[in-house]
Amino acid sequence: MAEPSSFEARLTQAAEISTRLKKAIGTVLVGQAVVVDQVLWGIIAGGHVLLEGAPGLGKTLLVRTLASCLDLQFSRIQFTPDLMPSDVIGTNMLAMEQAGGARSFTLHKGPIFGQVILADEINRATPKTQSALLEAMQEHAVTIAGKRHVLDEPFFVLATENPIEMEGTYPLPEAQLDRFLLKVMVPNPTEDELTEILQRTTGHEMKPPEKVLAREEVLELRSLCRDVAVAEPVMRFAARFVGASEPGRKESPELIRKALRYGAGVRGAQSLILCAKAVAMLEGRAHVSFSDVQNVAMPALRHRLIRSFEGEADGITTDQVVAELVKTVPTRPEAVEAAVKKG
Known about the structure:
By secondary structure, the chain is an alpha/beta fold. The chain is about 50% helix and about 15% strand.
């Protein structure tokens, strides 16, 4: 860890970079400030992000703009039912040398060999193809014909889902959803935002966004994020928060016991802390607060909670469950003891 003065200076610089980055994205993307913030949490924390929203809301534009601002190699994969794993990771192809006529296999790299990967409509591909992408997400490497190929760092996957059309789709299983650090919901624009979108998209072509960071600087920010301190009470609060999502515990809120079959698990707790560190760092703070953990809870946990039959029948969403946890889980252990005694 760096010396305190140097560390604080780097945090101040990180906050300035965050402001510049959001400003550069704003020159292309209209509105969606919350979405941009949450995607930046995922990038800085070193995780992958799942974006869900109706068509035409700028999901693809956001990912492309982000890659340009970070000066990273952008790669897009359009998922379709006939997409094969080799279309994602690549394959060995037989090539003939012109001089001697000798034949040899050469690697034809797939679009996964990028740094910012847009997996467009990931739920349209078969589970076999989805697993090829998710393996690369987990290992940051792919295996082709028995040979392992390490992907360039930083490596981020930003996948999109269309919630409207469910026919002909293959929803991601819970174990694969768990590979995404965050699930971000992309809302519809307001009237003012839609007016601005129309002005920008029906006129002359816009200028490309400013390049804010280079590859090495992105890696440095990821490393700096890990250095942000988390006090033990905050760490215990995150553990208590995730523990309260388990329906089998007596201290869990009544809504959780009714609506859920399984809670967020270990990866959920890790996501809370990593994203809370990213929030603190991007605001120039050296320590994570209780409110940071609460602020990241919705995108970090909504896709990790598995509803019970009763919860589904009553129409209780995982967002409602997370909101209940934010409302009811106390930040201090003495409040927990008082709640248990009262119950």
